[in-house]
Amino acid sequence: MLKGQYGLQSLETGKLNFKQIEACRRTIKRGLKKLGFLFIRLFTGIPVTKKSFGARMGKGKGSIAYWICIIKKGQILFEISGISNNRIKIIFKKCIKQLPLRLKIIKLFY
Q1: One digit per residue, pLDDT tens: the chain, 110 residues?
Q2: Is CATH 1.10.260.40 what the domain over 6-50+63-104 is classified as, yes or no?
Q3: Which of 83, 107, 87 lies closest to 9 in space, CA to CA?
């Protein structure tokens, strides 16, 4: 079980690809500056395939284009602990702007 003070919770269902998760992770790590701890509760385990533009019908499925993660309503995406509450909220607000879902910052009680 993870032990974060604050978390980022989704308010709707959706999909996130690896690039979006990595961009958010970099933003959080840049804001932490080696002081706090980041816990990622996402895993991109679903491959999305795509055929080339000029491929004709019936030539197979296509190669893997990118990986996605299905997000459910109420799921916690990231957790942070070890730094002040004001700084955590500033970092999460930057992260919310990068993701295409409605998210909210919550205080975690374990």
Answers
A1: 568 889 999 999 999 999 999 999 999 999 998 889 999 999 999 999 998 888 888 888 889 999 999 999 999 999 999 899 899 999 999 999 999 999 999 998 86
A2: no
A3: 107
